Amino acid sequence: MLNFLISPFWLLSLLPLCSAVPQRGRQRCTAVDTCWPSIDIWNEFNSSIAGRLIATRPSAAVCHAEDYDEVACSTAKQNWTVSDWRTEQPGAYTGMLWEYGPVAQCFINTTREAACQQGYVPRYSVNASSIDDIQQAIHFADEHDLLLAIKNTGHDHLGRSSGGDGLSIWTHHLKGMEWHDDFMPTNGPGNAQGYPAVTLQAGEQWIDVYGAAAKQQRIVVGGHARTVGAAGGWLTGGGHSAWSSKYGLGIDNVLEIEVVSAQGKHLILNEHTNPDYFWAIRGGGGCAWGVVTSVTYKTFPEPNHIQAVFVQVNTTGEAAFRRGLAGTLKGVDLMTAAGYTGYAYIQRPADATPEVPAGFGGFFNQADGNNETFATGTSAFMALNEIEGVSAFALPLQYPSWSVYTDLWLQDPNVAQNVIDASRLLTPAVVHDGAKLGALVDMMVDYGAGFNFIGRVKNDTRADTAVHPAWAESLGILSFGANWEDEATLEEKRQKKHMVVEQSKQLDEIFGSSGGTYINEANPFEPEWQRVFWGTRYEKLLKIKRKVDPTNLFVCNRCVGTDVVFEP
Ligand SMILES: Cc1cc2nc3c(=O)[nH]c(=O)nc-3n(C[C@H](O)[C@H](O)[C@H](O)COP(=O)(O)OP(=O)(O)OC[C@H]3O[C@@H](n4cnc5c(N)ncnc54)[C@H](O)[C@@H]3O)c2cc1C
């Protein structure tokens, strides 16, 4: 039996679309099924990969029953919300619901005798140290028809690196960076000039890449995050960055990707070797496309400085909140036009406190931003001071380099929490349509909101990648959502998940059928996920998926061609 919930309705709805349905249905065996390999077979497999198989357990298991270990338990308690520690654990996830699953529990704050169930944590993980380890894991999973997951950091918001009771390929220890002055993609034109670039192994994390890049006096377009992986889900989902207004998404800067395919082949993907596969993996999402072993990104010169800007819009009373927020979203339009990217929260009046008043708190940045960009960008926010009950201020700060900025400001929020979002890419067409803007502000009054990213993304190469076409117009990712405590009742958790599905439906009404979102920061239970995640590009993605993975070995929640779809 799978821990994942597979939606038969969704499978049926797919059938008319596909002339090339996988040749054989997969059982996706897990440890609770009779088709799961015997312990002897697992031992044999472990010997073939030099003992690199780990019996994976949830991150709090060391505090319970037969797994109890006093020292390890104390370490787990001290580091429970520390992202560096969490990403070091093969069985730990950032969103706790992707560790526990819908009903299981293995909590850190319960007694030693309390239950510790496996939940969504894979039963075994291959601690990969080489391409060969990955190839062996793929052959083994294929031969025994196992539920197969790929995990890097476990940061995924949609549970796509979980794999309850199955087998996982854990890429965290595949480290290494190679810096190039003149990188030429394989089979590229011999007479052309190469690119300054860096090749990152699959387990590299952004904070380490930024540190190493500073020594080269270069920057790499990467996440505004310490421990997010540079070559896993961030890459396959698109990857937004503080550099996106200048250089595009992460995928716009990829020169070459090495993968192990569903057939266990080690392939080099770029626009010269395999243009379709290369197109699909850049935005096609999750682990649907094989195991990435390395990626080569362009690098760029360091700027002279980084300018950061705090913007705070405070409102008193619901009427002022409504007027202030409508103006704030127009302010976002102007701020992004002036070249800023950023992140923000929107506090609704019902949750206002003296520390976090109702309104908008934004944190923006721009390489080489100056007094002029600051004045132009913040002018619409400042104009909000004319509205009764609204006060706004903006504060510029300057940092001498990206690495000084990242050391100070890169944090990993919401670690070891239960948080889910429903989101859409906010476009100028919505901001400047009175009725749609009003409906969005209504949602903000009801739920509060946030921006996981604000910025106009440089879009020269948008059609060359698989992300939703709405990225071309986007001003940012507007998110609503819900959170709950571990101890919440099953009914409360169920209600919160359904509330977020309801938010997705409301967003669909406002944004219409051409609205889209960023798949890495999307609702894990998005109803019309194929359309909302990829829009018109889904059909082409599905065709390529059928070609490169005809037996559907690589699946994950709401990934292209999947038969694994979580229900709320
Ligand atoms: C604290 C935090 C900060 C964030 N900041 C940003 C940000 O600034 N910009 C942004 O764009 N996003 C950001 N995100 C979202 C982030 O892009 C996604 O959570 C992403 O899925 C993380 O990828 P990962 O490889 O680190 O995580 P994982 O959970 O390990 O993997 C995510 C997905 O990628 C697959 N995968 C992992 N490694 C491989 C591999 N080697 N080959 C094939 N598939 C693989 C997994 O199977 C899974 O489907 C942030 C998330 C968090 C939690």
Automatic annotation (TrEMBL):
PROSITE patterns, sorted: FAD_PCMH
UniProt entry tagged with the keyword Signal: yes
Keywords recorded for this protein, A-Z: Oxidoreductase, Signal
SUPFAM superfamilies: FAD-binding/transporter-associated domain-like (SSF56176)
Domain FAD-binding PCMH-type: 117-302
UniProt keyword Transcription regulation, yes or no: no
Pfam family of the protein (one): FAD_binding_4
Signal sequence coordinates: 1-20
Family affiliation: Belongs to the oxygen-dependent FAD-linked oxidoreductase family.
Name of the protein in question: FAD-binding PCMH-type domain-containing protein
Organism: Lithohypha guttulata
